Every structure is written in structure tokens, then in C-alpha cells.
Structure prediction request, 428 residues.
Amino acid sequence: MSEIAKIEVNGSVYEFPVIEGTENEKAINISKLRGLTGGVTTIDPGYKNTGSCESGITFLDGEKGTLRYRGYSIEELAEKADFLEVAYLLIFGELPDAATLEKFQNDIKKQSIVDEEIKKIVDAFPKAAHPMGVLSSLTSALTAFNPNSVDVDSEEAMYNAVVKIMGKFPVLVAWTMRKNQGMPFKYSDSSLGYIENILKMMFKKPGEKYVQNPVLVNALDKLLILHADHEQNCSTSTVRIVGSSHAGLFASLSAGISALWGPLHGGANQAVLEMLAGIEEDGGDTAKYMAKAKDKSDPFRLMGFGHRVYKNFDPRAKIIKVAADEVLSDLGIEDPILNIAKGLEREALADDYFVSRKLYPNVDFYSGIIYRAMGIPTEMFTVMFALGRLPGWIAQWKEMRLRKEPIGRPRQVYIGENLRSFVPVEKR
Ligand code: ACO
Prediction:
């Protein structure tokens, strides 16, 4: 017997089915609520209790600190898989066999040429433009060069769109950074792996040979894997809701990039480093900033701490903390800002305010530290997050369209003025 939930409104009781996911999560299906009750709706700001869809891509349990892509634990994927394998897994549902993976890698390489006209668009931005704004615009601009919307029901069309965006996106990322730094644009090098190619396109200096550092390659590979999907977060929900109007894939991705930009979401990695730099400039007094974070009359928050879903250690943060230590010791970096980060982490983990609210360091607390050590400018951190999240957004867009989900259109409870008469301007 399946479970039933009852809601009583003005003395009438209505029954709703309780659905159960494969990991025993339960949800009350209220899709018939308005019809049955004559227009009563639910309200749930921030959607803290609202599931927007059924999804078979990513499972996370915030209480236990569990994260899985298509059933595989994030710990195992970060240790044994590479980013393109994970991208294929997320988008197409299964790990690719050797031949499929090789084809996927090669098809992406073939697509890593960006129309020269796009360069003109990059050039038109002011040098100081924020890279997330540039990236979002460039991704949107790709629609102008690829006007046909993807036919999601055609496996071939979908595959072609995937390799196209996976191939071109790293070039856009690298050009965005080089524009910001006044460096000439670099083309993709098809002799290299996906990660090595990204690093070379970003860092190769004119007239110098770029030497790959395997520790950095490994750290970036892991970072991208860890960021690749995170179920119905703000940017992913944006991609799904924009796509639900049957807007094209690239347009939906561009909207996702804009959503990711905010400091309460992907922009947190930039905000973490800016916060740490601010604390250092102010004399490095971490206790003062701990007190500010706890003071309810002070808007300051400890960036990189807390998570909407994880009320336990963020499993990604555990993995990335190890990678951060590896990168810092390999590069022999002694950075006062990193010492402040370690001090804050130590103090917060021992402080009752943070412990009782289950506020642990999140993935962005450590990712910013690695990016800084790698020489990536702070404003580019969220762009690196977008690079990792790309396959997740594509997978979620594809799933939403294949499941023929209706257009996303939430309700509201109106709290404005009641009907009133228009007063001509001269009488106001
Ligand atoms: N510093 C200080 N206090 C905090 C912090 C923080 N970083 N985060 C939460 N709190 C406090 C809140 O003030 C609140 O206290 P109260 O219960 O006494 O009122 C309590 O903890 C719960 O916080 P909420 O804001 O209700 O939690 P929510 O789930 O809405 O927010 C969020 C999660 C937005 C991530 C929040 O913790 C935050 O702003 N963190 C800093 C920004 C950040 O690191 N964002 C990255 C998230 S990870 C990602 O997007 C990849």
C-alpha cells in the first residue's frame, strides 16, 4: 500500500500520494492541490521543502554528507575517473567503454575550434569586465553561430551538441581570462588531453614553452569532477526552468552561468578569497571576523561556510582539502592568506555557533585556495566552477526535456494593493 498524506483546509480533508525515490526519499505529490481545493496553493520561499522534479542523475544526502553521480560515489569517481568520463556518465547515464570514451575525447577535440567572429566579441568587452559576464555572453553568442535548437529526441543531434559545447567552452574560458590579462588568445592543442589543453590555453606565455605540472593537472581534473553536478541547485534549476520554455541548450546554459555568478552560489569561491584578503589587510585578526560572522546585526558572513543541503561536512570539501595540501606543498607556497584560511577553519570547527548550526567549510572554501595557488586570478574562480558544472547542466537540461516536463511557472501569494481607481497625473 502506498502512503497517503492528508491536508485539511477549512474542514475538508484532501489526500495526496506520497512518492518514494530509489534512495527512500519521500515526497508528497501535491500536483492536484489547487484543483482539489479550489485554488489553495503552497508557499515555500527558497524552495527549501519543494522538489521541482524527479531526477536520475545525482543523489545527495546532506545529513550524511553523501554525493553520487548516477549511483557512483564522488569519492570513487574523484579517485578513479577523469573529467570527460564523468561528463559522459552524467550526460548519457553510463560510464563509456574504452572505444566510446576515445571517440568522445576525439569528437570534443574536433569541436574545440571557435569561430573567429567570436574573438571580435571578446575583444569588444572592456578589459576589466567581469569574466562571468563575458562567459555568459559568449555562451549566448554561440547560439548565433548555431541557430538550430538541439532536437533532444535525436540521440545524434544531442551528442553533436554535447561535443560542440564541451569542445568550445574551455576555449571561451581561456580567452575570457587572457582578455582580462591583456594576453593574446591561444588556440586549442589537439595533441593534449582535455585538462592539459585548458591549462596551456590559459597560461601559455608568448615565446615560452608551456610545461605541464602533473600535480596541477590532477588537482584541476578533481576540481572539475567535484563541481560537475549537484542536483537542483540555483544555477541547475535555472538551466532547467529556462529550458522548460523550450529555449535552446546554449541559451539555457548562458542563463545558468548568470545564476552561478552570485556570491551565495558559485561566486562564493571568489568571495572567499576576497574575504581572506580583506582580513589580512585588516591585520589578520581572525577572532574579530569570527565575532562579526556571529553578530546578527552585522551582515558579514563567513564565506565558504555553510550549505543549503549539507548539514554535515561537504564530501567534496574533504577531497579538495587533500588536493589543496598537495598543490601547496608541490608549489612550495607560503601564503599569509592561506594561513588565515586555516586559522578560520580551525576556529569555526571548534565554535559552538558554527557547530550547532552545522556550518562546515564547503567546496568553495578550498577551491579558491587551489585556484589562487595555480595563478588563476580571483575573478576567474567562478568561471572555473562553470567549466566543471557544464556537463551537469547539460545532463539536467537533457533529462528535463526527455521527461517532457511542463514549463516551470511557480505560483505566488499576492500581498499588494487591492483594486483601486486610476488617478490622472495632475490630480496626484
Ligand atoms: N556565516 C555565518 N553565519 C551563517 C553562515 C555563514 N557563512 N551561513 C549560515 N549562517 C547562519 C545563519 O545566519 C542562520 O543563523 P540563525 O539560525 O541564527 O538565523 C543559520 O546559520 C542558517 O543559515 P541560512 O542562511 O538559513 O542557511 P541557508 O541554507 O539558507 O544558506 C548558504 C546556505 C547560502 C550557503 C549560507 O550558509 C551562506 O550564505 N554561506 C556563505 C556563502 C557560501 O559559502 N556559499 C557557497 C555555497 S556552496 C555552493 O554554492 C557551491
Summary: Residues 264-266, 268, 293, 301-308, 357, 359, 362-364 surround acetyl coenzyme *A (CB under 6 Å). The longest helix spans residues 155-181.
